[in-house]
Amino acid sequence: MRWVALLALAFTLPLCGAAKNQTASGNLTYGQEVFDTLQVNGNVTLNGTTILQRLEVNGSMTASNVQIGELQVKGQAILTHSVVKDQCTVIGALKGAFSTFEKEITLTSKHSTFDECKITKIQVKKTRAFATQTIDLKGKTEVTGPITFESGRGKVNASPDSPIKESQVIGGKLDLLRN
């Protein structure tokens, strides 16, 4: 199904005209638009949007069925049925569902959740608080590389369907949850 959507996107991009760069503030919503870059100061909802190069959000983001090059969020980010093709950096909570992260995710947060996602690797930066930093892997979420906790106080809660191995968790511990 995703290939059909990507194929449709490939044929519609030339029809949309030139991609654009935009900086905006406030509570914003974008639909099936194409941007080279987009910078948002505030809250943004994206539905079917394509950002070819870089999306930067200073606030919260909710995205569904989007394609993003590089993603930087200072605030909460929620992605469903989306693809992040380049580096993903979130200072705050990240919730991903049915999404693919093709390059490293860098998080500075206490808690992030992934449900049915495909992830290359996760780097969790140390926060000021001395609390345990937690990553939840739900469903068949697959992480092909390491999950590294800079603080040494990390915890990965993984569903039994997630193919994560204890050797992939660095600076933390793996807790396999029961169904």
Write a structural description.
This protein has 179 residues and is mainly beta. The chain folds into two domains: 1-84, no CATH class; 104-179. It is 6% helix and 55% strand. The protein has one helix and 20 strands. It has one helix spanning 2-12; strands at residues 20-30, 34-47, 50-58, 61-64, 67-74, 77-80, 83-84, 88-91, 94-97, 100-101, 105-108, 111-115, 118-119, 122-124, 133-138, 142-143, 147-149, 154-158, 169-170, 172-176. It has a 20-stranded parallel β-sheet that branches.
Task: Fill in the keyword field for this structure.
mainly beta; 20 strands
Q: What's the helix and strand layout?
A:
Layout: H1 2-12, E1 20-30, E2 34-47, E3 50-58, E4 61-64, E5 67-74, E6 77-80, E7 83-84, E8 88-91, E9 94-97, E10 100-101, E11 105-108, E12 111-115, E13 118-119, E14 122-124, E15 133-138, E16 142-143, E17 147-149, E18 154-158, E19 169-170, E20 172-176
Parallel strand pairs: 1-2, 2-3, 2-4, 3-5, 4-6, 5-7, 5-8, 6-9, 7-10, 8-11, 9-12, 10-13, 11-14, 12-15, 13-16, 14-17, 15-18, 17-19, 18-20
